């Protein structure tokens, strides 16, 4: 069979190919071992050099043409199958979809972040202390020796068959920091503390924030200015009115409880407005005995300290009425009071 006849026969069959199976059969017939074009290769041995060269080039050209046509048609069938598959599996993006539950930031995490932002900008260092503590760092070093009446202010969780306990305040961080560092110090501590309380305003575990400064010549005026700046920044209220009332804490002298002014509008608390006051935190000048227990000379250095519950700040700022709601694992609470990550 001549090259012309092979091409004519191929084109005739090629036009009638309807699927990949027929195309594969065509490929075997025209490019397989028994294909007519291979018979032409066998005839080359009987030709002289010039004829062999000329016919060989035509045979290769014909073979490449047939192979190219088959590959093109194969790609066509594969694309056709893919498009049919995609058309059958396509998603109608105009259809409404179910809303996805997106995680929200817990109010406690939000408040702790705000606290860190405010005090970090004022040069305070944030330190951490252990939640399982010994008696010395939790009580004795804070001017509360064994059998001191001040210990009755806190119901404590003690570990069974151990002298260790769950810390009742973050002041253990203050003691550890002063024992291991030299003044001047500006330190804050955030963390969980544990007391045997459980009601609308108390839980056995809650978060406490504490800050302290130890430097030469600090006084109550510095403490007052620090608290005014913090509370005004946190509640986003200017000219917040504070009231300092004398109080007692074994680790500070003098000691004070701080009240802030507020009013009730439409059943909600408005911080910084009105002539009513509520207690918000405790503070004072660090007791001389505490400084001595931490190997700091009280004749050279003075200090002040303050502490507040993180949950209390969150309740006042975001209108949360029950402290226990923070820990009930109710997704509805987080959906209502939580924050989107872009707001964090």
Total strands:
10
Order of helices and strands: HHHHHEEHEHEEHEEEEHEHH
Please state the overall shape, judged from the principal axes of the Cα atoms.
Answer: elongated
- How would you describe the oligomerization state of the chains in this entry? single chain
The major beta sheet can be summarized as: 8 strands, mixed
Helix-strand makeup class:
alpha+beta
- Rounded Rg: 41 Å
Mean pLDDT, to the nearest integer, reads: 88
Strand content: 15-25%
The N- and C-terminal alpha carbons lie at a distance of: 81 Å
Return residue spans where pLDDT drops below 50 for at least 5 consecutive residues. none
Alpha plus pi helix count: 11
What percentage of residues falls in helices of 4 or more residues? 40-55%
Structure description:
The model has no long low-confidence stretch (mean pLDDT 88). Strands 1, 4, 5, 6, 7, 8, 9 and 10 form an eight-stranded mixed sheet that branches. Strands 2-3 form a two-stranded antiparallel sheet. Helix 2 packs antiparallel against helix 4 (49-89) and helix 5 (107-120) packs across helix 10 (310-318). It has 344 residues and is an alpha+beta fold. Helices cover 40% and strands 21% of the residues. It has helices at residues 3-14, 20-31, 36-43, 49-89, 107-120, 135-138, 171-180, 220-235, 288-293, 310-318, 331-337; strands at residues 125-127, 132-133, 165-166, 185-194, 205-215, 242-249, 252-265, 268-271, 276-286, 302-309. A hairpin with a 2-residue loop joins strand 6 and strand 7. It starts with a helix and ends in a 7-residue tail after the last helix.
């Amino acid at each position: 069979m001549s090259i012309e006849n092979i091409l004519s026969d191929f084109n005739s069959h090629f036009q009638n190919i309807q699927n990949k199976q027929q195309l594969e059969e065509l490929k075997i017939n025209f490019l397989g071992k028994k294909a007519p074009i291979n018979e032409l290769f066998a005839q080359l041995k009987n030709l002289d050099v010039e004829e062999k060269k000329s016919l060989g080039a035509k045979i290769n050209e014909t073979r490449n043409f047939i192979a190219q046509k088959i590959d093109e048609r194969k790609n066509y069938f594969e694309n056709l199958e893919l498009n049919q598959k995609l058309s059958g599996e396509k998603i109608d993006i105009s259809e409404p979809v179910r809303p996805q539950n997106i995680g929200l930031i817990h109010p406690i995490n939000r408040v702790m972040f705000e606290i860190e932002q405010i005090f970090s900008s004022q040069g305070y260092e944030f330190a951490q202390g252990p939640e399982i503590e010994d008696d010395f760092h939790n009580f004795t070093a804070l001017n509360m020796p064994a059998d001191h009446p001040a210990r009755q202010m806190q119901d404590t969780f003690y570990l069974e068959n151990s002298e260790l306990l769950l810390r009742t305040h973050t002041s253990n961080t203050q003691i550890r920091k002063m024992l291991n560092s030299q003044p001047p110090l500006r330190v804050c501590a955030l963390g969980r503390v544990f007391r045997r309380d459980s009601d609308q305003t108390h839980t056995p575990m809650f978060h406490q924030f504490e800050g302290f400064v130890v430097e030469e010549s600090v006084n109550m005026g510095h403490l007052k200015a620090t608290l005014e700046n913090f509370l005004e920044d946190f509640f986003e209220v200017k000219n917040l009115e504070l009231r300092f009332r004398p109080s007692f804490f074994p680790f500070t002298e003098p000691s004070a409880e701080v009240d802030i002014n507020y009013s009730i509008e439409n059943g909600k608390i408005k911080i910084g407005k009105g002539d009513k006051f509520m207690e918000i935190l405790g503070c004072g000048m660090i007791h001389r005995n505490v400084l001595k227990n931490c190997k700091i000379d009280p004749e050279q250095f003075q200090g002040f300290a303050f502490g507040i519950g993180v949950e209390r700040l969150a309740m006042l700022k975001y209108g949360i009425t029950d402290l226990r709601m923070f820990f009930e694992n109710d997704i509805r609470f987080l959906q209502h009071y939580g924050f989107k990550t872009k707001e964090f």
